[in-house]
Amino acid sequence: MPTQPPVLVASDLDRTLIYSAAALALTMPDARAPRLLCVEVHESRPLSYMTETAAGLLSELGDQAVFVPTTTRTRKQYQRINLPGPAPAYAICANGGHLLVDGVTDHDWHAGVTARLADECAPLEEISAHLHETADPVWLRKHRIAEDLFAYLVVERELLPEDWVKELAVWAEERGWTVSLQGRKIYAVPRPLTKSAAVREVARRTGASWTLAAGDSLLDADLLLAADRGWRPGHGELADEGWTAPAISALPERGVLAGERILREFLKASRP
Fold it and tell me: Judging by DSSP bridges, how do beta strands 210-214 and 7-11 pair with one another?
């Protein structure tokens, strides 16, 4: 019998499948809280978690589908994560700027991405200089360049003026860039730098005929729209804006329990 084409599952990580302590959003009494598994340690401290139930679901999913972590994290930040289940053959980092194959960067893919950015949007140096000039030290904590592809700021969210982010988004859009506010981070990302393009490349290489996706932020919208079916949690930028699309399910769950629900949906939708 001919084998069926694989199902590809492309999922954002932070605040979609894995959660910092501040993002867990556990509202039940402590005695009823789910058991958590630490999946990321940084500088000898636990940083990110999923529920133990979610860990089991992800292990099952890794045996059933082509699971592709799809993140805006740099390669170094991604490689700190120790997800349960089989090691993914493919991973997408830097919002699609790097395609990892068995943990190693595909240099041809990266070269193609950088060439496209040079042709289609303002240079990173211009964006970074504008961030440096306009961010207020009162609320700015860090200014970082990620993989020489995009920039992000770490801020004190309660001190951050909403108007500043809106003005930045308008200024950036005129130059072919997108702005996304996620927790304490403000990302400025070139519009052609997309998760969806890298996911389509993985689908081509694996022969996948059916793609599932999940994500919570504005930077995940293109990923969700490119999938056959997608899910977003009840928190994050997309939920705050009430964003949806015909093949997208808006889940009510928030925090780490949303990650568990998303994995259940992935498993259900990827079964033959």
Answer: parallel
